[in-house]
Amino acid sequence: MVSLSNGKSYIFSPDMKAWLLLSNGTILPLAALQGQTQNKTMRLARGIMSSDPNLRQIGTLSHLDNQLAASLSLKSSKEYKFWLLFSSPVFGTRSLEARLRDLCDGLLGQ
């Protein structure tokens, strides 16, 4: 794991052969979900969320994928469960049956 002076922390995933963003030093899961953190990153995220619906969906899916991958890399079962429970309904309500099926197959070890 590498933590930088700008507050961002990364972990290298040998399986993915990539660095994963773990934290940007400002956003906690509950604060982000409840919109309580008032900083530049959250204002930028709100701007994206109020933009084009396709861009919003891409941003949401990218964020969820990153959180799930980071939780797995850290072997953090509590955070993985949090993001898994948060992701599942998102995949279901956005007509992303293939994503939901992949997620379920992964949990079943297929």
TrEMBL record:
GO terms for molecular function: nucleosome binding. It is found in: Nucleus. Keywords: Chromatin regulator, Nucleus, Repeat, WD repeat. GO terms for cellular component: chromatin; HIR complex; nucleus. The keyword Methyltransferase does not apply. GO terms for biological process: chromatin remodeling; DNA-templated transcription; regulation of DNA-templated transcription. The keyword Repeat applies. PANTHER family: MEMBER OF THE HIR1 FAMILY OF WD-REPEAT PROTEINS, PROTEIN HIRA. This is Protein HIRA. The gene is hira.
